[in-house]
Amino acid sequence: MTRAETAVDIHDLIAERRSPRSLDETAEISKEDLLGILEAARWAPSANNLQPWRLIAGKRGDSNFTALFDCLVPFNQSWSKRAAAFVAIAGTPTQPDGTAIPTFMYDCGLAAAQLTIEAHHRGYVVHQMAGFDHEKAAPLFNGATPIVIMAIGKQAPAEQLEGPAFDREVAPRVRKALSEIVIAGLPD
Known about the structure:
alpha+beta; NADH Oxidase; 4-stranded antiparallel beta sheet; 8 helices; about 35% helix; globular
């Protein structure tokens, strides 16, 4: 794995994390690994411990995988069909009594982040996708708001991809400088 060029040293799980599209279509994910990845999401921090996320997991070939795949835009379908699993996250924007949960998207993002780091720890890669038909996905979640579908698998060589997918796969990892994103300035 290519390590990110960071301003200071950070943990390998973060520095080496990538979101590849080139996935090994022969790779499978064990039930134990998938449950461990879902468990990491379960233990994400959430405001007032409301845990507003709802997850759907599917392994390649099962009905959940197919239902989530069918929601993806064609570009994402073209490469993600090789994933070993999909996990989708939706969020509940209100409590059972109707009180709004203003942080539900943030909390769901934390669940996605912990899921991603746990998957990387277990030797998998995760590619998070917003490119899907949200209206088509909504019934899968019984009223929760669909947020992301994540492809999980083992990385394969970029050369199996073509066109824009290949170009994105081999592009350098870049991020804005800390000075561009830290509003109050960097400490001395």
